[in-house]
Amino acid sequence: MAITFRQLDAFRAVMLAGTVVGAAKMLGVSQPAISRLISDLEQDIGYNLFEREGRRVSPTGEAKLLFEEVRRALIGLGQIRDAAIEIGRLRYSRLRLVTVPSLASTVVVDLIERFSRDNGETFVSLEVQSSDSALEWVVSEQCDLGIAAAKMESPSIASRTIHVGASVCILPLGHRLAEAEIIRPEMLEGESFVSFRPDALYRREVDTIFLNAGVTRNLIYEARTTDAVCSLVAAGLGVSLVGPLAIARRGDSPEHRNIVARPFTPTPPVTVSLLWSTNHSMSASAKEFLRTVEQHFELQPS
Q1: What family name appears in the similarity comment (predicted)?
Q2: pLDDT tens track for 287-297
Q3: What domains does the chain contain, in order, with CATH numbers?
């Protein structure tokens, strides 16, 4: 049994119009075409759907039961058709992003806000994952684009470097090192230090710098997001290292008014990249977001 949507559409039209002639006018086809579709449908399912009385047709009990199922199915098909049209017009598009905690509440917010100015009808979903998990999301195509503090060299991932900068040391207002021109690891010996969570790639890079310098910090605070790290530092609970974008974005926020940012050396370099899977082509909304990123960071179009 190979029932087609054309047969079901003809069946629905006859049920609604009450005659084959009316169904033909409703669908804009010939009366013989409707009769043939109904006849083929009845042959496929093995029983009659209508009793013929001249030009009028009366639905059988089986037809009435089938009609409810067909009605629901065709409504769903119509929704799919409408969605396909809207996707083509970028009016029903969606953009799935994944990023890391250190960027989630900083530069990514700016990028989404700028993207939405010209793509206000695009549904945007933002997922926040650890560095390793974010890369897995990109490779497994659970998202359209990833934004991470990493420069990738993988055949499965394409990347566009969108920002390269130096980390800074953030300290509470009034800290003994607040006026230092440059802060070095040994200057933070024994300091209470606010770290990112252990699953963050940036955390590993920072820990390596202090380990190589033989400097011991008091590691009793950690947080997942840049905003949370800055807030803990602003509360006087310790010092930390963050990427430059964290300071540039929210310079007027209360937590940033209560911290001081100083250059740090040797600095963990921060390379922010836009990532996507090489296993499929970019969607229209992903291409629009790439253009937004290039405009935001004043990059040459790719």
Answers
A1: Belongs to the LysR transcriptional regulatory family.
A2: 999 999 999 98
A3: 5-88 (1.10.10.10), 94-153+276-296 (3.40.190.10), 168-267 (3.40.190.10)
